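>> received
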Amino acid sequence: MTLPTTEDRDPLAIGLSNRSDKEVLSLLLERQMEALKAVGPALPQIVNAAKALQETAQNGNKIGYSGAGSAGLTALSDCLELPGTFGFPADRMRMLYAGGVENLLHLAGAHEDDIALGIQDFDQSGLGDGDILIGVSASGTTPYTLGTFQAAAKAGTETIAIVNNPDTPLAKQSNYPVLLNTPVEIIAGSTRMGAASAQKAALNMLSTLVALRLGHAVRGHMVNLVADNEKLRSRAQRMLQDLTGCTEETAANALSQANGRVKIAAVMIREDVSVDKAEDILNRYDGNLRALL
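>> returned
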């Protein structure tokens, strides 16, 4: 039987235990770097996926992620990070993980074989027409993730598939397939290594491009974050000083009045207006601070 690339064995893995620590680590690093190179040929596919994701976000619809095992963890990381980094509304984010929260500590593998569980989790997620679901699967054959895509197709939910093997069922079922054709793993089947590194890079690029187009990233700053701790408050103050040329004190005061919302504070300072007026002005630009600046 022909094995998927992610399950094949790297010839350089033979005799690996006889090599020095530095040699082993150098080979692991080399393979990680080769895996990341697989993202380059997928750039046109990522662009198409980003346009679909941007449209979903602009329309106020929901964004979902699905996956199992290490691929699911990569998806989960992106899902959890977007609200804090770029201000994607947390109440419009969904995570469909094989086995649910209870499976995060021990990652029991049986859940990923349950296509019916994927269908069930999707049906309970609240995702539907106009929403989008991002499925991550190195093999591209994970039954759980396939189940979520089957249910998505029936519900009118568009799908983005991120896979590491060509000609896979998940990619074929998706509206926007992204193939990261990574080389074999130095430990056969250990897709938390090279395949996951490429997945993480692709997801980071996808969401960052969308955030940039939505005006959530301006002049290299994460302007859509909400500063709710000391580190973020300091970062937000520096952003405001850079964007408006104001003093540290002015930035701190505006940020306090705006309840930590950087974009609102920036408009307050720039236009010398109240919080309510700043909200009205920003709404005219669909929340895009770049257009206003």
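>> DSSP finds twelve helices and seven strands in the chain.
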